[in-house]
Automatic annotation (TrEMBL):
This is Ubiquinone biosynthesis protein COQ9. It comes from Jhaorihella thermophila. GO terms for molecular function: lipid binding. InterPro entries: COQ9_C, Ubiq_biosynth_COQ9. Keywords: Lipid-binding, Transit peptide, Ubiquinone, Ubiquinone biosynthesis.
Amino acid sequence: MTATETVEIRERLLEAALTHVPFDGWTETTFDAAIAEAGVDEALARALFPRGAVDLALAYHARGDRTMLHRLTAADLSDMRFRDRIAAAVRFRLEAEPDREVVRRGVTLFALPQYAPDGARAIWNTVDAIWAALGDPSEDVNWYTKRATLSAVYSSTLLYWLGDESDNHQATWEFLDRRIDNVMQFEQIKAKVRENPALKPFLALPERLLAGIRKPSNPRDDLPGSLRTR
């Protein structure tokens, strides 16, 4: 089987599943129905998605990331402030979701303790893709703090969006702007603390320790970074 055929079968299974997710969630019931409707051999389907509906849900999330990146790459954001580019990227990601109920079912799935690490990893991959697309040059601990901060912004905005009934989700975009403003205010406070002569002696040791943290040279799903020893 070629790579193209594998992708085509994966997409068939995912599309078949999406009609069932709003009613049955990302469950084995949905996975079994998708196999039957897509006309795919069960052994092959299990080979492509070993954990069944859980892996289907992750594939759906990854597809949303690709849609967001395609739109982000095509958009001209050169005249925007950097914080507005971040807001646009988060908005593009949410607008890549055609059915909020499918997303809601995914949130429910990844809230379960056994799947929470998968959900956290999926969000991390989303924000990492955003920062990479926007040309983040970070090589040190900032690589992690930027992604951790944006993960919190994205997660809170996603939850707000799920319950937003305003026209064109305007309330969500205003909520997103407020969250990014909060982050910018925090960054300004950090900068003032670093510039304060009275506090510099107390920051010397933490900054020296943090200076040894580098962004991952060979990214792994379970180990997102490295510590440089001297």
